[in-house]
Amino acid sequence: MITTIEEYRQATTKLRDSVRQLGETLEDDIEQMTEFLRYRAAKHRFFPQHPVDDLAFFLDAQYNIQLSAQLEPSMDRALLLSQATVEGDTAFVQQLGQQPFIFCTFHFGSYQMVGALLRQFGIEFSVLTLKQGVTSEMLHHAAVDDPLDVLHADSPSILLEMHSTLQAGKSIMVFIDGNPEAISEADSAAYARVNLLGHKLLAKKGIASLAHATGVPILPIVSYRTGPEQVRVFFGSPIKPDRSVPRATYVQQTLQACYGQLEHYLATRPEQWLYWRMIHNYVDLSNGHSGGAALPTANLGSPTHYVFNQERYELFAARKYAYLFDRFTQEAFTISPKLLAYLRHLTTHPEAVASAAVRINATLLHDLLSKQILRGVSREDAP
User: In principle, which of 59, 295, 322, 323 could form an S-S bond with 340, CB 3.0–4.6 Å?
Assistant: First the structure.
């Protein structure tokens, strides 16, 4: 366990060096390169005007991930809390023991700080985790001596367990961005649509629905870093359920308020959110374009030309290799410089089908078409 500021500084220096090394060897590992391209795609989609270059953004994000997920859980709680400054509405602390709350936060910034502060305030709460098997010791090493009560979101009786917890006067802390790895279009009807940075994201309705059913207020929280050893934790005002408001309306408005609070900090500190690598799973797919979903192939009969499918794929030339990134599957593939040049040419100069059949090896052409890297168009539709 890290117990002194000197140990903490040594650990962060080592972490910075590790991340710097990652940037230098990125192309030696296709999995790491694919991860970089996922972050790059998210950056270009959600905040294209962000002044930090793609690689610096990726490395800053990796540093924040390791700091929050690996280093901070190993810190002495008093040392962790020494970095915190509290902002916002903390009137709920004066209601200690009078009523429970549902504390809703995100995997953003120093999210370990949220639970530590609630415990310092004397709040009794349970933590909702994504999967069974997660223990309090996994969340923070100090929990060995001071265990957290853990609820598992995938438990068949989780709604009953949470309802019973709140009825007993105990609060619940929830990471509301803890969605599953993927949301199918069929399942997406069970999710609310919230606006975030100009896009619609799918957000679970369960926690907001539980608040409406029990009358327990939701209190949004965002913890964010402002510099080395400096963390600010913003507590929003409680969002109290109003039974005269339809549940669907309350759920939508509450989730939008929570994500709106996150958006405020994402605008200037996007590298502090843990979930960019999987954000494509949350984007609303109902319009057929968001999230890089595969577009339906037009029924052209016999196309006259081929073009590069820019709607689904992205080309990227790094220092050593060229890459083809599939926005739909979020996978990356190395390609030859010759193929890179050819696909780039096709973005503005469609090639006749007959000409492509002569120019390209038959096996390669089949792969390009079957994977929708090339898209058939009629002469009238060609750029």
Answer: 322
